[in-house]
Automatic annotation (TrEMBL):
GO terms for molecular function: alkylated DNA binding; DNA-3-methyladenine glycosylase activity; DNA-7-methylguanine glycosylase activity; DNA-binding transcription factor activity; methyltransferase activity; sequence-specific DNA binding; zinc ion binding. It holds the Pfam family Ada_Zn_binding. Keywords: Activator, DNA damage, DNA repair, DNA-binding, Hydrolase, Metal-binding, Methyltransferase, Multifunctional enzyme, Transcription, Transcription regulation, Transferase, Zinc. It comes from Streptomyces fuscichromogenes. Its cofactor is Zn(2+). One of its GO terms (biological process) is methylation. In the C-terminal section; belongs to the alkylbase DNA glycosidase AlkA family. This is Probable bifunctional transcriptional activator/DNA repair enzyme AlkA. GO terms for cellular component: cytoplasm; protein-DNA complex. Residues 87-185 form the HTH araC/xylS-type domain.
Amino acid sequence: MHLDREHCVRAVQSKDARFDGWFFTAVLTTRIYCRPSCPVVPPKPQNMTFYPSAAACQQAGFRACKRCRPDTSPGSPEWNQRADLVARAMRLIADGVVDREGVPGLAARLGYSPRQVERQLLAELGAGPLALARAQRAQTARLLIETTPLPMAEIAFAAGFSSIRTFNDTVREVFALSPSELRARRPRSARHAPGALTLRLPFRAPLNPDNLFGHLAATAVPGVEEWRDGAYRRTLRLPYGHGIAALAPQPDHIACRLTLSDLRDLPVAISRCRRMLDLDADPVAVDGRLRMDPFLAPLVDKAPGRRVPRTVDEAEFAVRAVLGQQVSTAAARTHAARLVTAHGTPVDDPEGGLTHLFPSPEALADVPPDSLAMPRSRRTTFTTLVGRLADGTIQLGVESDWAEARAKLLALPGFGPWTVDVIAMRALGDPDAFLPTDLGIRRAAQELGLPGTPAALTARAAAWRPWRAYAVQYLWATDSHPINFLPV
């Protein structure tokens, strides 16, 4: 961990919520583990020990605190700001790969042996992939127990357990309560709509929802996304079926309503929604670095906590980035909507106006080029991209190596630095992706007194690393940001 014992003790004694998810406090006398901001009286320092993951606490024999519920902490920002083996493995585990494909499947996606993956995860997190996946299953089970009226047998298999006995034993071990006792603790006033799950997605404060939800709503593809009744809604293509997510910003959480065709997709849906909204970011660290530049400091002070709006489907975003090259946002949405209507998978949405899943690369690979209403050069770019995505030559999932993905995208016809960097920023999740050639960035930079040429701006932005993607959000938030023009 990046924190030493002294820093951890101070964070616990001050109940600092900024460190929730960064590490967990295990109390030797009670055998309970907590988040740093637990509201109970802090234990004596000599009775504290610290672990980098909830799975490591559970593996060491500690139970989750019933007051602070450490299993519901925001995720560690480490896994979204790195592209090494451990970070990629953690993103895949959160996406449910271990439950679906086992440890060999996880290792195969990463290009390492199972033994290498196990060794590196144990060294950094104190727990292997099976223990980390087990901790996630326990959290999913608790969520289903407390938010649905489903029978326990259905919850067990929906959460990914192989048997009801394993489900019962794990819940008792992790929470020191049986599944029925957990259900009895939920508020009696809780109401459950058939087929829908309502939950709260935590984040580290501050969070400024303006650019986050504003950008998603402004670029929404009709039929796939919409803004309705104060919530951003969209369809989700998931491993076992499909779903619809409705996400609304609240002062201390994101209200999330999920409608899933298969409950086994719950942990994956939550993970992808969190990733799209960048909820595991550390805004204190990001804003602290950007404030060091006197030209950016006023923008950060005016609206701290900006996030990078990302995506729930990396391949979808890459296709939409190509559709948006050199056209207005409205035109890009029109192009995408035509593809959705013609080639997307229809879905039912009784609560709104969503009609389709965005077409998969395999479906788009069969689209006749002549049917695309775009210049010949961009048709070539489009067909080449979807072909590479469909045959697996280019992979843009959470396991992607950022440098390798960038190199493969740059080798495609019609892909310039802007397209590659915007995909790196919003699809791959690179927090240091930068767009020095973007017209809105250059105009904002000149207005602020920063260098206006791409080369000079890139040199100046070296001081903003590794958070240049967040600097882009602050610059785009100025009045100079022309959201209606997307370059190549």
